[in-house]
Specification:
This protein is mainly beta and 119 residues long. The protein has one helix at 106-112; strands spanning 11-15, 19-25, 34-38, 43-51, 57-58, 61-62, 70-78, 89-93, 96-102. The strands form 3 sheets. Strands 1-2-9-8 form a 4-stranded antiparallel β-sheet, with no helix packed on it.
Length: 119
């Protein structure tokens, strides 16, 4: 499958028995550059934005062309039904954003079952 946006960060999605993990390559980005949230449709939304406004003039020269002073990206992913949305976590390590998506445990599934009394 061809990537629609060649400049978009590479994304890996890994599944284990207990969780999914999303990895997004973002060299040079810090945790402050990211926003990870669940939208109104229960989708996972990962966005990042980085602006370098300070360093317009280098020590003894100026930029003739500058293309990497601003970066913006957003990706929306449909979450599987077995993801426990209340326990999603994220961290940045070595230029990679990791989003941990734990699956419901058997105990959580049992707790979610609710008997409705008939009046």
């Amino acid at each position: 499958m061809t990537r629609a946006n060649a400049t978009a960060p590479a994304i890996n999605v890994f599944e284990t028995e207990k969780a999914y993990e999303v990895e997004l390559a973002a060299p040079g980005m810090k945790k402050e550059n990211f926003n990870v949230h669940i939208d109104e449709d229960n989708n996972l939304v990962i966005s990042m934005e980085k602006k370098d406004e300070n360093e317009e003039n280098k020590k003894n020269g100026r930029y003739l062309r500058r293309e990497f002073s601003y970066a913006k990206f957003q990706q929306t992913m449909i979450l599987p039904d077995d993801v426990d949305r209340e326990k999603i976590g994220a961290h940045v390590e070595d230029g990679v954003l990791h989003v941990d998506l734990p699956k419901f445990t058997k105990e959580d599934k049992e707790k979610a079952k609710r008997v409705i009394n008939i009046a």
